[in-house]
From TrEMBL, chain A:
The ABC transporter domain, residue ranges: 12-246
Record-given protein name: General L-amino acid transport system ATP-binding protein
Keyword ATP-binding (UniProt): yes
Record-linked Gene3D superfamilies: P-loop containing nucleotide triphosphate hydrolases
TM region positions: none
SMART domains named among the record's database cross-references: AAA
Sample GO molecular function, one term: ATP hydrolysis activity
InterPro entries registered for this protein in UniProt: AAA+_ATPase, ABC_ATPase_HisP-typ, ABC_transporter-like_ATP-bd, ABC_transporter-like_CS, MetN_ABC_transporter-like, P-loop_NTPase
Pfam families associated with the record: ABC_tran
The organism of origin for this protein: Rhizobium loti
Key word Glycosyltransferase present: no
Keywords attached to this entry: ATP-binding, Nucleotide-binding, Transport
Family to which the UniProt record says this protein belongs: Belongs to the ABC transporter superfamily.
From TrEMBL, chain B:
Gene3D superfamilies: MetI-like
A GO cellular component entry from the record: ATP-binding cassette (ABC) transporter complex
The protein's name: General L-amino acid transport system permease protein
Keyword vocabulary terms for this entry: Cell membrane, Membrane, Transmembrane, Transmembrane helix, Transport
Transmembrane portions of the chain: 21-43, 93-115, 122-143, 149-177, 198-219, 225-241, 297-316, 328-349
Xref: PANTHER family: INNER MEMBRANE AMINO-ACID ABC TRANSPORTER PERMEASE PROTEIN YHDY (PTHR30614:SF41), MEMBRANE COMPONENT OF AMINO ACID ABC TRANSPORTER (PTHR30614)
Upper classification of the organism: Bacteria, Pseudomonadati, Pseudomonadota, Alphaproteobacteria, Hyphomicrobiales
Length: 271, 359
């Protein structure tokens, strides 16, 4: 059973993680430890392994080497462990992945009911509470296709929260949204962060990173090249890989862009 | 020439007809010619089928043959053979009730309110059980009637319904196995599906009915009817499996990932997330397959079963009604039409209903 007390054990510990797609070395010796309640933002150019890394955490991808320990349970071939971890780790996807054949409410209650075996009344009460929290309680009986992108992503967040997870993973949650909808999703994520949720977000929203993150990771080529609190991250002038000018430009570019906006105005930042 | 600046008012129905069919003299001539031919054909058909037709058996076959129109008396005289085949005359009410049971069962299971595991199982269990007891007898004071005496509409319905009932779950299993991550499972399944699909149905029916008994031990053979149904279900499932697989390919991979991320197990993902969406995608092709299977039941005549079409042959084939085969076939076509057309309309209803959530 996954322990729920915080006895010094980090929420997530990754040691020497390796991942291959065929012969392509997607993740190279990743090391990462995330404390309970910590917020991590992962950024980097596309193809750098950000998504692959967080998809390994709930075993949507199988890793080939190293260890991943989530909430004290090691991810291995034991299916029981995987199911247990997935119950405690919520995930929000770039393309929402809501179930189109179910209403918003059904989307939110189904996993509580069939995975957690909760009675419908209880599951619906929880679902309505979280829909309230993401500010769309009035859409409960609509189908996903009747909602805007921003609303769908907020439903996806509510759906993940209904399982009452201890860790939330966000895989580019605002990348598929129209610019004017980015802020409504980020607002919800900020609220969630302020309530002490352990969060790992892959995102390009540097304003969000500045405001919320405890640490920002910069990844490229399957490695974590830089790891620093946002203040430090955005003020240091170079990455720890000065040998590669491209990487360096990319990182500096991101940092400069984020400097153009003040943190309180982050919600109007979109790229 | 003047430019038209305002949109013309919407034409009335008469104007619309005029514009479409009588715009030029040549078009008018062609339209009139077609209309004349159509009226003539419809008149001929109605005259044959209704106005000059004989409906009663009072005059016997001779009076009927002399009439200019259709001889529906053959149906009045022989409908029992068409509907019940060789089923014993005094027991034919049982066969009729059995048909009603199957139709009621099918209609009930088409109503969305019955789409829960327990209800559908109850409806199908009760329906097929009732059909079997009524047809076979041997209990509750009903005389025993062997499967070899079953026939007509009851047999057609029974073969169709059991073929689908066995074939559909089998098709889903095959489709799931075919997308297995283990290559030896998916390849073997692919081989089975392609193998069955490349054989004609007739040869499969013949093999199951006639050849299989040589290969199987006595206790495993069962009645010829059930072997034929198994063969037909296997054939059905091979085609339907590919239809289901096509439907599954239309479901975004993110759907299963989302279900996994929520902690759902394999069967929960399949039954709650994948299959409902896949079946929705596969609906038009599935209805098509059902329609084809309904009509293919007539092939069981090759292994000696008198389903409705073969019973129809028997109905006019006994001497005095020999001349009235057109009427018998027209009547059987009408029965097929009722079933297949309802099936198609039901498919259209399902598609409308499902499209609500996918707008």
């Amino acid at each position: 059973m996954i322990s729920t007390n915080s006895t010094g054990e980090p929420a997530l510990r990754i040691e020497n993680l390796d991942k291959y797609y065929g012969t392509f070395h997607a993740l190279r010796g990743i090391n990462l430890s995330v404390k309970r309640g910590e917020k991590i933002v992962v950024c980097g150019p596309s193809g750098s392994g950000k998504s692959t890394m967080i998809r390994c955490i709930n075993r949507l991808e199988q890793h080939n080497g190293g260890r991943i320990v989530v909430l004290g349970t090691e991810l291995n071939d034991d299916v029981g462990n995987i199911d247990e971890i997935r119950r405690e780790v919520g995930m929000v996807f770039q393309h929402f992945n809501l179930f189109p054949h179910m209403t918003v409410l059904e989307n939110c209650v189904i996993s509580s009911m069939i995975v957690r075996k909760q009675p419908r009344a209880q599951a619906e009460a929880t679902a309505r509470r979280y829909l309230e929290k993401v500010r769309i309680p009035e859409q409960a009986l609509k189908y996903p296709s009747q909602l805007s992108g921003g609303q769908q992503q907020r439903v996806a967040i509510a759906r993940a929260l209904c399982m009452q997870p201890q860790i939330m993973l966000f895989d580019e949650p605002t990348s598929a949204l129209d610019p004017e909808m980015v802020s409504e999703v980020l607002d919800v994520m900020v609220t969630l962060a302020s309530e002490g949720m352990t969060m790992i977000c892959v995102t390009h929203e540097m304003g969000f990173a500045r405001r919320v993150a405890d640490r920002v990771l910069f990844m490229d080529g399957g490695e974590i090249l830089e790891e620093a609190p946002p203040d430090e991250f955005f003020t240091s002038s170079a990455t720890s890989a000065p040998d590669n000018s491209c990487r360096r430009c990319w990182a500096i570019d991101w940092k400069q862009r984020s400097e153009c906006v003040t943190p309180h105005a982050f919600r109007h930042l979109h790229d | 020439m003047e430019m038209v600046l305002v949109a013309p008012p919407a034409p009335g129905r008469l104007e619309d007809l005029k514009r479409r069919f009588f715009a030029t003299p040549l078009q008018a001539v062609v339209s009139l010619a077609c209309l004349t031919i159509m009226v003539f054909l419809v008149w001929k058909l109605l005259n044959w089928a209704v106005f000059s037709a004989v409906f009663t058996t009072s005059g016997g076959p001779e009076a009927c043959q002399a009439a200019a129109g259709a001889c529906w008396s053959v149906i009045a005289a022989r409908w029992r053979i068409i509907f019940f085949g060789l089923y014993p005359y005094e027991e034919q009410w049982r066969s009729a009730l059995a048909c009603v049971a199957v139709v009621v069962m099918t209609v009930l299971s088409c109503i969305p309110a019955f789409w829960t595991g327990r209800r559908i199982a109850l409806v199908w269990g009760a329906g097929t059980g009732l059909f079997y007891v009524l047809m076979k007898g041997g209990v509750l004071g009903l005389a025993h009637v062997g499967e070899e005496a079953w026939g007509g509409l009851a047999l057609t319905l029974f073969i169709f319904v059991t073929t689908c009932l066995i074939g559909f779950p089998l098709a889903i299993c095959l489709a799931l196995l075919r997308r297995s991550e283990l290559p030896w499972i998916s390849r073997t399944t692919g081989l089975i599906i392609d193998g069955v699909r490349s054989l004609p149905l007739i040869s499969i029916l013949f093999t199951f009915a006639v050849v299989l008994p040589f290969a199987l031990p006595q206790w495993l053979q069962g009645d010829k009817l059930y072997r034929v149904i198994l063969g037909s279900a296997l054939f059905f499932s091979a085609y339907q499996a590919e239809i289901v697989r096509g439907g599954m390919q239309g479901v975004a991979t993110g759907q299963e990932e989302a279900a996994m991320a929520l902690g759902m197990r394999y069967w929960q993902r399949i039954s709650r997330i994948l299959l409902p969406q896949a079946m929705r995608n596969a609906m038009p092709a599935t209805i098509n397959q059902f329609v084809i299977s309904f009509k293919e039941t007539s092939l069981v005549v090759i292994v000696g079963f008198f389903e409705i079409l073969a019973s129809g042959n028997a109905a006019y084939g006994t001497g005095e009604w020999r001349f009235a085969y057109v009427e018998v076939y027209a009547f059987i076509a009408f029965i097929y039409f009722i079933f297949v057309f309802s099936l198609s309309r039901y498919g259209a209803f399902l598609e409308r209903r499902m499209s609500v959530s996918e707008r």
